[in-house]
Known about the structure:
Layout lengths: L7 E9 L5 E9 L6 E6 L10 H9 L2 E6 L19 H19 L4 E7 L2 H4 L11 E5 L11 H22 L1 E2 L10 E2 H9 L11 H16 L3 E7 L7 H10 L4 E7 L24 H9 L12
Parallel strand pairs: 3-4, 3-5, 5-6, 6-9, 9-10
Antiparallel strand pairs: 1-2, 2-4, 7-8
Amino acid sequence: MNAAATTVTVSRVRFPALDGYSLGGFLHVPAGTPPTHAVVFATGGGIRAEVYKHFAGYLASEGMAVLAFDYRGIGESRPAKMRGFVAGLEDWAEYDAGGAIAWMAARYPNAHLTGMGHSIGALLIGAGEPATKLEQLVLIAPHVGFHADYGLGVRWLVRLGWRTVGAPLRSALGYFPASAMKLGEDLPNRVARQWATRSFGQIDPAEESAANEREERALQRIASFRKPALVLSISDDKWATDVGVRRFLHVYKSLLAIRLVLEPQGDDREVGHFGFFRRRSSASFWPIPVRFVNAGCSADWAVDSTR
């Protein structure tokens, strides 16, 4: 840990998505001089930004300003009433992640801007037009939300909870009560329907055409995103499996990426999809993205051994 920046200030912040929707999140800022690095952290789907507070605090203690934000409908960005609240993955990707990047770029104009994402957030972080402001990416346990790529136990849990039980619940309540089923935070109806029926990269012709066009544009931005990226996957992850990570890299086909597969360390019997962000991983795993960010990674060293 950088001894010169051990004091961290955490503030609740609000900022506009690209369409004006008010988003909430947490800004972790190191003490001392203005940071030379700023990070926009995109959470996993249905996971509150607050869950990542220890990791974000660690990054800030290493001299980075870190924004961890909630997508519309989740946590600090949840509306007063979820029933009938309209939001899709295209909103999370284009408007919300894009708005977070634009806000941090304006707040820290002299800092090197890095995009980080966990799980489905790794897909969304590069989908908005402001993603061109990012100099590099750190992508942790990435996947595209395609059920066939999950481990067997997770696959059946998702199919049972999101499809079999979820469909009538969404119809009755006007949103997906994931929290009651211990599947994360409650989700807007459209997001839950999109996730339950297909991967983000598959366009459903039954959906309204305007949303289809926005998804296609987001996918085009993802496919053309050509910046250095550190891709971290975990050997025992049942959500972001090896085939799932490879599918993800096929979607982000222009990345200048190096992929590292992390193994449980010491007394850890498992890490899985969420263990990277537990404080017990701070000594073994957390310094890896810090070294990447501080190196100011350039395209001439980036290697992708997964394709």
